[in-house]
Amino acid sequence: MIDPAWKRSTGGRGTIAVRRYIGLHDPDGHVPFALERADRRLTGGDFDIESVRQDDAGDFWFGDEFGPYLLHTDEDGKLLEPPIELPGVASPQNPPVAPFNAAPTLRRSSGFEGMALAADGETPYPMLEGALIGDPDQRRRMIYEYSPEEGGYTGQTWQYRMEAEGHAIGDFTRLGRTTFVVIERDNLQGAAAQFKKLYVVDLREADDDGFLVKREVVDLLHIDPAGVPLGARPGDVGLGAELSFPFQTIEDVLPLGGRRLLVLNDNNFPFSNGRNPARPDPNEAIILDVPGLRG
Prior knowledge:
Blueprint: E1 2-5, E2 15-18, E3 49-54, E4 60-64, E5 69-73, E6 84-85, E7 112-117, E8 124-128, E9 140-147, E10 152-161, E11 168-174, E12 179-185, E13 196-206, E14 212-219, E15 250-257, E16 260-265, E17 285-289
């Protein structure tokens, strides 16, 4: 749990305190392959966790890029069942022990990046970050439906079309009963960044080609700071009369009610330097007021 002290036009520290965290662990031996740690604490060498949702029962669902897998834990991070594979889809790291998969259907680091929960509070909708290798349309990204009650994928899918092949998904979050927010981004950072946007889609609305209809709601490279002091240091990018969120990986969006969205980056510490080419990126969080967010 994090506790932000927001910087506003009226003042504020602009800091984030970490109040509580959980660690994922598998004491009951659900993971069928060797783990990095003998105490069965799960690490980034076992799974590449990119998304998390808590269902109405209090359990957590995590989306992983290595499998791609879904991981189901209790509220304390204890794994409750074996990692859940997506039928017919496997990355080079599936399985994540040598020998690696020699015939993957998904490229490395292209698994479950975003994952929403349905309006019922229990059904995960995981979304692939990248295209399937064999897909003739490399701009297609797939969204799946998993039923915890049935213990399997339902076969229901949705298609999202990227604005360019090289773009990636940052997050996929429910906004309304059938509407969702998508982060779509390029793989660039700092002054070179060209595309970081938020779209709203409705699972009931598809175009003639079967792709979800997209509605742009935010350009994260062009934000009105609305009087909030940005505190730029020498060399900082995007902290001027206009605020830019120029990070390589922007991976979290959370509706806060009404027109407000919380957006956060993944700083890939210490390897990304989108805010300042001379400094490792911090984790930054911003709250946006988005007119027309809900249509």
